[in-house]
Specification:
The protein has a single domain, classed as 3-Layer(aba) Sandwich (Pyruvate-ferredoxin Oxidoreductase, domain 3). Helix content is about 45%, strand content about 20%. The protein contains 6 helices and 6 strands; from the N terminus they run βαβββαββαααα. A hairpin with a 7-residue loop joins β2 (about 40-45) and β3. It starts with 8 loop residues before the first strand and ends with a helix. The model is unreliable at about 1-5 (pLDDT under 50).
């Protein structure tokens, strides 16, 4: 069974390369927490030397209380959308934290448990590769429950260009449903193992 966040403060790093909408993804998470889930949130962003194609990172802190320091060294949740980002950060996640990756862009090099979704491929199937970040936000919401689904959907529709709300909501739900299905499959597998060992 997946452990859901219980502590009052959660630190999240979303990382990949420029052009993937990494900072927008971070902004959506923070906005969902602050505007609809009645929490505090901060966002710190950083880029490599080139914006498109270079390293990109969004650090989000979500807390029940006032946030004194917005920078993160040991994330509770790490979302990686490139191999370079994964290699840079995967060792920093807390032992009980969540590691989420784009299945086609990240090949894990450790046996640490991670949750993977082919977000870029799914976005291409929807006809918009640029929506991979929205699919990843849906997936992250389902797996980690950092923010409520309702809050995340509100933040998505408030953040995307006018006229694309419906398409982006569809992308979000695609990621969310994939995450819920993955958790259900893992739970069934775990209960099957328990029965087999009984």
């Amino acid at each position: 069974m997946v452990k859901q966040p219980t502590q009052s403060k959660q630190e999240i790093i979303i990382t990949g390369f420029g052009g993937q909408g990494i900072v927008l993804a971070g902004r959506i998470l923070g906005m969902a927490a602050a505007l609809k889930d009645d929490k505090e949130s901060t966002l710190v962003q950083s880029y490599g030397p080139e914006s498109r194609g270079g390293a990109c990172c969004a650090q989000v802190v979500i807390s029940d209380d006032a946030i004194q320091y917005p920078y993160i060294t040991t994330p509770d949740v790490l979302v990686c959308m490139s191999q370079a980002a994964y290699l840079k950060y995967y060792k920093s996640v807390t032992p009980e934290g969540f590691l989420l990756t784009d299945k086609d862009l990240v090949k894990p090099v450790s046996d640490r448990d991670c949750f993977s979704i082919p977000s870029t491929r799914m976005a291409e199937e929807l006809g918009r590769k640029m929506m991979a970040n929205i699919i990843m936000i849906g997936f992250t919401t389902a797996i980690t429950q950092l923010v409520s689904k309702k809050a995340a959907e509100y933040a998505v529709t408030s953040s995307v260009p006018k006229g694309t709300e419906e398409m982006n909501t569809k992308a979000f739900n695609k990621g969310y449903d994939y995450g819920k299905s993955l958790l259900k499959g893992r739970a069934q597998k775990a209960s099957g193992k328990k029965r087999a060992n009984a």
